[in-house]
Amino acid sequence: MAEENQGFFKGLWGKLTGAEAAPDVAVEEPHKSMPQAEGEPVQAHELPVSQVAAEPQAKPSLFQRLKQGLARTHEGLVARIDTLLLGKKQIDADTLEELEEILITADIGVQTTVELIRTLEAKLGRNELQDGAALKKALQEEIGARLQRYSAPLDVTVAKPFVIMVIGVNGVGKTTTIGKLANRYVAEGKKVLLAAGDTFRAAAAEQLEEWGKRAGVDVIRHQAGADPSAVVFDGCKAAVARGCEVLIVDTAGRLHTKVNLMEEMKKIRRVMGREISGAPHETLLVLDAATGQNAMSQARLFKEAAEVSGVVLTKLDGTAKGGIVVAVSNEFQLPVRFIGIGEQAEDLRPFEPSQFVAALFD
Ligand SMILES: Nc1nc2c(ncn2[C@@H]2O[C@H](COP(=O)(O)OP(=O)(O)OP(=O)(O)O)[C@@H](O)[C@H]2O)c(=O)[nH]1
């Protein structure tokens, strides 16, 4: 890589990740292993004696699993709010200032936090917040209202085939998300096809094939290094010829420069649009919630470069930075379509604001 290019790329990498220096090779990440499929039948004789004898454990409900997934964010946000407000008989400006700090450190985002605090101040001015409990309730409602504002579930029945273009930098959980989506739509009885548009790394297509096998769907792929648009072209042709309802296209998360990214995205979109009317019907940006403010920078850059229409926030289960869901949706005015709360197929959930807020606050 030429000296000046390295310098430029390091700058861009720093902008995206907050890192001091860029790795030498673009955004290549060490490859992670596939999680074990859940739900594979296990024979009784394969289990340890203690488990065979044990009473069957009740499976946690979907809501309980969501709560468990958000436990760390609950600790970082709501438990701290509780400590601040517990038993508070009167709310004053100092209380709101401390609340502001908690919201910002939980990655709710500066803009959203300022909005929330202003709204709460106005309520306080109108004597609507008598005590700590009333303040917490008002905060919960205001966060819920902001999430609701841009919320819209992804409806894949409005076109056939419905084309989802999945974008995001490496390692955020793009491939895993595509696999989980494929599982979801197959379970709904839909015919699904995947296209391995990340031709930059051979491992990306292989990982996608693994997920495809598991979900029982075909994957269109070319040799490593091939033109992603050619894969997309073949994917579109095949999806139409086979009467598929959903085509999900993986893309490389390379971000040499914003201009390159825009050009690559434009080319892929042009090919899709020529083959299938209105495609891509959804441009889904995958962000790793655990990266907090870096996820915000990525959202900003991709929104400018790639006409993002929806967001997936992954890895909410491993982070206290779940406030990022509120920040991304509110500050970029984008619907959060799905959230990832674990590595298994069923851990990708359609995002429902009221359920999310309830699981976080209760
Ligand atoms: N805990 C948890 N792990 C997740 C979630 N989503 C993805 N992962 C894990 O994150 C890691 C990266 O996921 P990938 O799907 O490989 O990420 P990618 O963006 O496609 O990255 P490349 O395949 O390297 O391009 C894998 O180990 C996944 O199992 C989630 O919601 N929760």
UniProtKB/TrEMBL annotation:
One of its GO terms (cellular component) is cytoplasm. GO terms for biological process: SRP-dependent cotranslational protein targeting to membrane. The keyword Lipid metabolism does not apply. It catalyses: GTP + H2O = GDP + phosphate + H(+). CDD domains: FtsY. InterPro entries: AAA+_ATPase (IPR003593), P-loop_NTPase (IPR027417), Signal_recog_particl_SRP54_hlx (IPR013822), SR_rcpt_FtsY (IPR004390), SRP/SRP_N (IPR036225), SRP54_GTPase_dom (IPR000897), SRP54_N_sf (IPR042101). SMART domains: AAA (SM00382), SRP54 (SM00962), SRP54_N (SM00963). It is a peripheral membrane protein. It is found in: Cell membrane; Cytoplasm. GO terms for molecular function: GTP binding; GTPase activity; signal recognition particle binding. It is an enzyme of class 3 (hydrolase). Its main location: membrane. Keywords: Cell membrane, Cytoplasm, GTP-binding, Hydrolase, Membrane, Nucleotide-binding, Receptor. Its EC number is 3.6.5.4. It comes from the Bacteria. Coiled coil: none annotated. Residues 335-348 form the SRP54-type proteins GTP-binding domain. GTP binds at residues 168-175, 250-254, 314-317. Pfam families: SRP54, SRP54_N. HAMAP family: FtsY. Belongs to the GTP-binding SRP family. FtsY subfamily. Part of the signal recognition particle protein translocation system, which is composed of SRP and FtsY. Involved in targeting and insertion of nascent membrane proteins into the cytoplasmic membrane. Acts as a receptor for the complex formed by the signal recognition particle (SRP) and the ribosome-nascent chain (RNC). This is Signal recognition particle receptor FtsY. It comes from Geoanaerobacter pelophilus.
